[in-house]
Design a protein that fits this description.
- This protein is mainly alpha-helical and about 600 residues long.
- Helix content is about 70%, strand content about 0%.
- A two-stranded antiparallel sheet has the order 1-2.
- α31 packs antiparallel against α32.
- The protein starts with a helix and ends in an 18-residue tail after the last helix.
- The relative contact order is 0.03.
Length: about 600
């Protein structure tokens, strides 16, 4: 069939009117000519896409291959590295750009401020601030907000951040400006300052966002006042943010950290929406106060089809460590390996701590030696583990190995070494490290460090030297110093110094029942029965009672807990039989118990 026949009028149809009108409108419409984007713009867009997908190497390779690179391309690289937390590389790219004599724009400067904040390099930030002023970029609101954030993070006070905030014109300040200032105060543990700014923000009529409330709730958490937090909770509902999950999670965290667990529980079960952060928040909250409940919530989370992450496992390992649940900790360790998370640094550190506190120092050492990368926490955790188990020499050797690896010890590391020396009786070594800390590392000892040295001397019977050290302290000693000194006085029968230290502790912490008991026993040992009776009556009037000692053992996946006078457990007869055998064995070996401080403890189990 020919084409002419196909187009024959015999087979033609009338074109509908609406189609003809559409064609006519298209013909009358003049479209602008297509102008292709420059290659540099296309390449910059691809670089941004690479960074969004985490393809950092590909982004750098493409950037290096670009024949022409304008300020937008350089800024994309700086911002990309910053968004991937590669702050040092972002700074190096900025230096490369300045060497090319390219003039930065406001977006460049704000990205560089974020890099300085990430590196916590105040000196770099000040240099960029000067550059921003030089190029007239300090009036842009996103530059000022980034500058304020950098100063709030890198400075020891909020003075410079407040200067920037007050320098922004009133009409130019936005919600980000106010929230950045609130966050700065919160991160510097100045919750009252943060709440003051938040109240000012409300009075100025600034539009609030969910992030503003999240930061303000964290400020309430930092000062531990749940009454402020409850008011903030009411404000969240009033502004209609009660369905915003990040805000809900911050409120849950506030209730947990303020110890309001009944409110936290009620709020958790009332939440219509939960994510992994919600579960982690409640698990971490209970880990600090009720680790058994933390494990129960973890099991609930698993049954709810949520996959735990590294943060979840860190909290659960801490709960196992607190309870000394070795078997449970080992099962968690197996799950971590199964999920391929055993290379995570924070988890490895938590495993070292868990095995150590559960009495398995060999597995602690194995985890530590198997780590491909170690930070200061790794070394410190292992040293504390060695010290707790009496391996003072191993702790010292580990300290020296750490120093040789190039890691600079901090105050916590020295505290771990001093404590290890104290438990192992390595007095001279401990005193040498105390001197190295002050003279070699320029670290001034605080109350806890002095407490470690006092304990070191006191355990070795050098009580008078310990007292001389206390008297030479440049500040007034607190209970962390007097406490170990009191223990040393009790152990080595320095009754006068013991009375002095007990009275000092009671001045600082008048509700410490254990100190009342020890002081009353000292009076009884001296035959001062009137003072003894007076203190015991005072304790009864105060309703103060020494916390009952408790021990536990894990047998066959069950944990058995024991207190003085316990007769409830079904296996208690067997326990007492073993105890009597141990007492007979102690007597046979000639052990004579020290009952001086126990014979007057008639408070039934105290």
């Amino acid at each position: 069939m020919s084409t002419r026949k196909l187009l024959s009028t015999t087979h033609s149809h009338q074109i509908p009117l609406f189609v003809r009108n559409s064609i006519q409108s298209v013909q009358n419409f003049t479209t602008p000519p297509f102008i292709p984007k420059r290659p540099s713009i296309l390449a910059t867009n691809v670089i941004k896409s690479y960074f969004e997908k985490g393809l950092i190497v590909e982004a750098r390779t493409l950037f290096d291959e670009m024949p022409e690179r304008d300020v937008v391309a350089w800024t994309a690289m700086i911002n990309g590295y910053t968004s991937c937390s590669n702050y040092t590389r972002a700074w190096m790219v900025f230096l490369e750009m300045m060497n090319q004599e390219l003039e930065p724009n406001a977006y460049t400067i704000s990205s560089v401020f974020k890099a300085c904040k990430g590196m916590k390099r105040l000196s770099y930030g000040r240099l960029v601030h000067g550059l921003a002023v030089k190029h007239g970029l300090d009036g842009f609101i996103y530059v000022d907000n980034a500058l304020m954030d950098m100063y709030a993070t890198c400075c020891v006070s909020m003075h410079d951040a407040c200067m920037v905030f007050h320098g922004i014109q009133f009409h130019a300040k936005n919600e980000v400006s106010w929230t950045t200032l609130i966050a700065g105060y919160t991160h510097q543990d100045n919750g009252y300052g943060a709440l003051h700014v938040f109240r000012k923000m409300l009075s100025e009529g600034v539009e609030l966002s969910p992030f503003s409330f999240s930061i303000a709730v964290r400020a309430c958490t930092s000062i531990g006042l749940h009454t402020f937090g409850e008011q903030m909770h009411t404000g969240v509902i009033k502004h209609g943010f009660e369905s915003n999950l990040p805000v809900m999670n911050s409120i849950l965290d506030m209730y947990c950290r303020c110890g309001c667990f009944s409110e936290a529980n009620r709020y958790f079960y009332e939440m219509h929406q939960r994510d992994l952060i919600t579960w982690n928040t409640l698990i971490a909250g209970y880990e600090r106060s009720d680790p058994i409940e933390s494990l129960y919530i973890f099991s609930m989370m698993l049954s709810g089809c949520f996959n735990p992450n590294c943060f979840t496992f860190t909290s659960i390992l801490a709960a196992c460590a607190t309870l000394a649940f070795l078997n449970c900790g080992q099962q968690i360790h197996g799950t971590i390996i199964q999920r391929g998370l055993d290379g995570n640094l924070a988890l490895s550190n938590a495993l070292i701590d868990m095995y150590s506190k559960c009495g398995n120092i060999a597995d602690s050492r194995q985890v530590f030696r198997g780590m491909s990368h170690r930070d200061l926490v790794s070394w410190t955790s292992m040293m504390i583990g060695y010290g707790t188990h009496g391996y003072g020499q191993e702790a010292i050797e580990l300290f020296e190995e750490m120093v040789r690896s190039g890691i600079r010890p901090d105050r916590v590391v020295f505290m771990a070494v001093l404590s290890a020396c104290s438990h192992a009786g390595l007095v001279d070594e401990g005193l040498r490290y105390f001197k190295v800390m002050m003279d070699g590392c320029n670290i001034s000892p605080d109350q806890e460090i002095y407490g470690c040295v006092v304990d070191l001397l006191g355990r070795a019977g050098r009580v008078k030297e310990a007292y001389e050290l206390i008297q030479s302290m440049p500040f007034k000693p607190d209970e962390s110093v007097w406490g170990p000194f009191l223990g040393a006085c009790k152990a080595h029968r320095f009754r006068n110094l013991g009375k002095l230290s007990a009275l000092k502790i009671l001045d600082l912490k008048p509700n410490m029942a254990g100190t009342y008991v020890m002081l009353s026993n000292i009076y009884a040992a001296d035959g001062k029965w009137g003072e003894f009776a007076r203190l015991r009556k005072l304790m009864k009037r105060m309703g103060s009672k020494k916390e009952t000692g408790r021990s536990w053992v894990e047998v066959g996946n069950l944990v058995y807990s024991f207190v003085v006078g316990n007769e409830v457990d079904s296996k208690i007869d067997g326990v007492y039989q073993v105890l009597e055998n141990l007492i007979d064995h102690m007597k046979e070996t000639g052990y004579v118990p020290d009952l001086d401080c126990l014979m007057y403890d008639l408070e039934g189990g105290t």
